User: What shape does this take?
Amino acid sequence: MSISNNFQLIKSQIPEPVELVAVSKFHPVEKIKEVYDCGQRVFGENKVQELLSKVNELPSDIKWHLIGHLQTNKVKFIVPFIDTIQSVDSEKLLLEIDKEAAKINKKVNVLLQVKIAEEDTKYGLEVQEAKEIFSNYLENKYPNITITGLMGMATFTDNKNQVKSEFLILKSLFDELSKFKNLEKLSMGMSDDFKIAIECGANSVRIGSAIFGVRNY
Ligand SMILES: *Cc1c(COP(=O)(O)O)cnc(C)c1O
Assistant: This one.
């Protein structure tokens, strides 16, 4: 199937209020353009270098999301144009984003990435750390940051019950924090598990291979 067919098929499986972030990592700008031409405007990349090399080659109305681990020394390169940094996994990183955003008088949207998977290979804040950061946020400790929501990745497994229970951990944190200040986005679910994620309350999904085909790592 062509990329645009893949895209339409995925799109048809995602209910209207749920945001689709098309994950274009490892795929060239020509392929991204095909999906753009289908009307998609939100794209996700996981590496700063790769993102920077693509941004200027593509239309400026694309909303770019960074979804991979971000090193503090690279923050300054993306802050000027990034729409959302989904992968904030430490307070140190958040403070750096705040600092760089202040320099150019911008407010940057971020999601706190919470570790819900069993594997310890995955980045993310512990639930308790996320709560602490959120409470600092409510006290205005990061004036140039808007925390728009939470992001998480489930364990890579065929065990649907496990995936579901991990997503529900994030959903319950989302509901708890939302009582203090409205959060818009609960970003969870990828090509293989987005349906479960949506059942568990995700309102933003990050889908790569089901649209662009398998990646050559
Ligand atoms: C690569 C990636 C995705 C997309 O994964 P697919 O399985 O290709 O849909 C989603 N989220 C993050 C954080 C990723 O790194």
Summary: DSSP finds nine helices and eight strands in the chain. The radius of gyration is 17 Å. The chain has a mean pLDDT of 96. Strands lie at 19-23, 42-45, 63-66, 84-88, 108-113, 145-152, 185-188, 204-207.
